[in-house]
Amino acid sequence: MERETPSLEDELWAYVGAGDGTHCPLYSDCDFRKSDDWCAVSNPEFISYCYEEFERVHDKAFAPGDYDFIRFNAHCKMFKLVECLAQSYLQKGGISCPPVPTNLAMLADVENGVEVRLVPLNAYHGGLWRSQGKWIVQLNANDTSARRRFTLFHEVFHIRAHLKTTPVFSKIGRKTGSFNESLADYFAACVLSPPHWVKKEWAKFKDIAQLAAHFDVPYIVMFVTLKRIGLIVLLFSLLTLLASETPFC
Q1: For residue 236, how many other CB atoms are within 10 A of its CB?
Q2: Pairing mode of beta strands 134-140, 114-119
Q3: pTM of the shown model
């Protein structure tokens, strides 16, 4: 497994770099889609991934049962590669149980360094830029710990992508990069709440809010993770805000 991970990561970044950031680079020749399995590109609910809008519209601990959400318990190759990247990242940090420590983010670029700053932002959850070779991650001081953690590892994906390729991500005021933003969201969710950990801990808690608090992730992140792996069967539709309109850069 250790020897396979680098090649899988290289494959992921090759696809990310070859795409336009807005569409899946494998869509045209994807056997997964052709076999009528669930496809992210064909389902804008997932591309937006909509943690942002769902949390804005609804209470964090509320998931209405009268909404329809596509059950995505299997993913295409792109998302499977992101899962592998998240797992290798946890292994690299020697992390094997929740909650994942935030200092794991420092492994995104050990050579140049990653600095995390808490600032009171009015409209955005976070941002990323590079100054004198060091990565600077801004997190909104007004957000909850769980929300900041999710934002942090979303930005970790951005750092890794920029180190490995020339990716296209969403910029403020631009409608490009939505697919790659969904990959960053998915990476953050897989790092903070790996499915095999969630399955094990769910047997202890059997309560979404308590499990989310245990993992220190937003309620909706845990809800979607449980829905994805089939441990809860509530159906809902995330009220979407395209990922291209989210504040990540």
Answers
A1: 19
A2: parallel
A3: 0.79
